[in-house]
Specification:
about 0% strand
């Protein structure tokens, strides 16, 4: 095993040992896909962007009245990390690998979003209220805002792949509807380069009615990834076939077993 491969394996094991809430998803996804270093590295980058990491520890130093403004600055830093991760995914330029990576990433993203929503609702945190002071609530707040934004980035740049997963999952639909509503009230997206993101995402997903002049600003840029509908459908069929085989193998492994004493009878 080369040094690069060892580093990749170590990174995966470290992620699992750290006890991420989507560890099971990560393990299942990693076992189900090709173990090339490019694939693993991009998966790790994307999951690091999506999963909780306690990135708001610096807010301990904030004043009560300036919490939201400080968070907006940290949000801009997080957005740069997200754009870099997305750039790596785009440059992979392999629809089959992109399909698998986005599958893993979406499962982790929506798990974090679901857990964070539960924390905020339980604490009755209003999106248009003061920025939370409790550390757990700060993290939940930031995870909702950052993961909702990142999902918007992914769906606008890879609409066909995201629709393939999203349109069949009513729980994800409900979660992102809530996330968009929450984010719209926070004030984080009011100005700057992210001001149109929530509206474009909602229209692309069919959550809100498309305006007559709606246009996905990234769709033309990615035509090279989808040279034809036939190519994309072929990739989907291949992936679905692989997934069915994997599920069938799991069912066989989980099947009933005859104990030693029974077999002797």
């Amino acid at each position: 095993m080369g040094d690069g491969e060892a580093d990749g394996t170590w990174s995966v094991r470290l992620m699992i040992q750290l006890g991420d809430p989507s560890t099971a998803v990560c393990e299942q996804g990693m076992a189900a896909v090709a173990s090339t270093m490019d694939f693993l590295w991009i998966c790790l980058i994307l999951l690091a962007v999506v999963l909780p990491e306690g990135s708001l520890a610096d807010l301990e130093k904030q004043r009560m009245g300036s919490g939201l403004e400080i968070y907006k600055k940290l949000f801009e830093v997080k957005r740069k990390d997200q754009m870099n991760a997305l750039k790596n995914l785009i440059e992979l330029n392999d629809i089959n690998q992109q399909y698998k990576i986005i599958d893993i990433m979406l499962k982790g993203l929506f798990k974090v979003l679901e857990d964070s929503r539960a924390v905020l609702i339980a604490a009755d945190v209003p999106p248009d209220g003061p920025f939370p002071q409790d550390e757990k609530l700060k993290d939940a707040y930031s995870h909702v805002v950052e993961n909702t934004a990142f999902f918007g980035d992914v769906v606008l740049r890879f609409p066909k792949i995201v629709h393939h997963y999203f349109d069949r999952n009513s729980n994800w639909n409900n979660l992102i509807r809530w996330g968009i509503g929450f984010c719209n009230l926070t004030g984080v997206f009011e100005q700057g380069p992210h001001s149109q993101l929530l509206g474009l995402m909602a229209q692309e997903l069919g959550i809100s009615e498309k305006s007559p002049n709606y246009r996905n600003p990234f769709k033309a840029d990615h035509s090279e990834f989808f040279p034809s509908a036939d190519t994309f459908q072929k990739a989907l069929r291949e992936e679905e076939k692989r997934r069915r085989k994997e599920e069938k193998r799991k069912e066989i492994r989980k099947g009933p077993r005859i104990s030693r004493s029974q077999s002797e009878l």
